[in-house]
Amino acid sequence: MSRRHHSRSEPVDGLLLLNKPAGLTSNQALQKVKRLLGAKKAGHTGSLDPAATGMLPLCFGEATKVCAFLLNADKTYRVTARLGMATDTGDATGTEIGSATVPEMSVEQWNAVLQGFRGESMQIPPMYSALKKDGRRLYELARKGETVERAPRPIRIDEIELLEAAGSRLVFRVRCSKGTYIRSLVEDIAKVAGTLAHTARLHRENVADFRAEDMLDLSRAEADAANGPELLRERLLSPDRALAALPEVQLDAIQAAKFVGGQAVPSGHDEADGLARVYGADKAFLGVGEFSAGGMLRPRRVFRVA
Q1: How do residues 132-146 score in pLDDT, each as one tens digit?
Q2: Which residues are registered as beta bridge partners of 280?
C-alpha cells in the first residue's frame, strides 16, 4: 500500500470555507473538494445557485455535525442587479421575459427604496427554486413552462446598503436571514422603484461569524492538493469555529467523560438556557450541550475529533 493511499484512508475532520466559483452547483463543488481531501464523509450548508459565487462552508467528517447549526445562520451578499429587464429565472442565466424603463432616481431615492425592505416581511419564493410543490421541485415545473401558486415565507433583512446606482446598474450589500431569495428581493426592489430587474451577479461574503478572508479559492485548493491531500488538510478549520456565537463551557476530566458518554453534567451557569460549546480540561472540543433545569448541561451533539 502506497503512503499516499494510506493518507487518503485517514479520517478527515474539519471545515473549509470555499469561495465557490460560478458555473458549479454547491454539490459539485463539495464533491471536488471531498476528492481533493480524500475525505469519506462530507456535507455543505447554505446552497448557492450555480451562477453565484462566494462563501460555501464545506464540512468533513465529524464537522458534518455542525451543518444543522449553520442552516439557520445569517448571510451577507454583494448583489449586482440589472435594472430594466426581467428574466424567467430571475438571474442572468435566464431568458428575457419583460423590459421596462429605468427611472431616473437619485442616490437618496434609491437608499429610501432599499431601506424600506429592512426588518421582517413575507416573500414569495421564485419558481426557479428547489422548494417542492406536491412532491415536485419548483424549478422542474418552471422548466416545463408551468407556474404554480407559492405561499409567502417569512424573511428578515437586518442591513441593506447601497453601493452603486448608475444607469441600469444597481449594487448593494444585504445581510439577511436564512431562506431569503435574493433574486426575489431584487425583483421586489425594482417593483417598488417602478421598473423590472434581475440579479446579474451574486457573491456571498459571509455566513454566520466566518470571515471572508478565510475563504479558499477552488484553484488554490487544487494546487495545494496536487501532491497529496496533506497541505490542503492543514487548511481545515476546527468544527467549533462554526459555533462561535454560542457561549463556552469548560468541563473537568470527570465531567468531560460523563458528557461524551451521554450524561448531563453541572454547567456552572444556573440561569443559562439554550446551547453551548463544550470543551474538556485540555481545551479539546467535545460537542454541543443544552442547558437544562437545575443548572445542568446535557449533551446535544457529541464530537469525536482526534
Answers
A1: 777 778 778 778 787
A2: none
What structural domains does the chain harbor?
3-72+209-239 (3.30.2350.10), 78-202 (3.30.2350.10), 246-302 (2.30.130.10)
CB under 8 Å to 142, separation ≥6 — which residues? Answer: 88, 89, 127, 128
Q: What is the dihedral of CA 222, 223, 226, 230, to 10 degrees?
A: -90
pLDDT tens-digit series, residues 189-242: 999 999 999 999 999 999 998 999 999 999 999 999 998 899 999 999 999 999
The helix/strand/coil state of 107 is helix
Which stretches of 54-106 are DSSP H helices? Answer: 67-70
Catalytic residue among 13, 49, 224, 240: 49
Quote the pLDDT of residue 306. 61
Q: What pLDDT does residue 80 have?
A: 98
Orientation angle between helical segments 107-115 and 182-193, nearest 10 degrees: 130
CA distances from 289 to 15, 32, 115 (A): 20, 33, 38
**CB neighbours (10 Å) of residue 99?**
11
Helix/strand/coil percentages in the chain, nearest 5: 30, 35, 35
Count of CB atoms situated within 10 Å of the CB of 121? 16
d(CA 131, CA 127): 9
To the query of whether residue 49 is one of the catalytic residues in this protein, the response is yes
Where does the chain have alpha helices with state H?
3-8, 26-37, 67-70, 107-115, 138-143, 182-193, 218-224, 230-233, 253-260
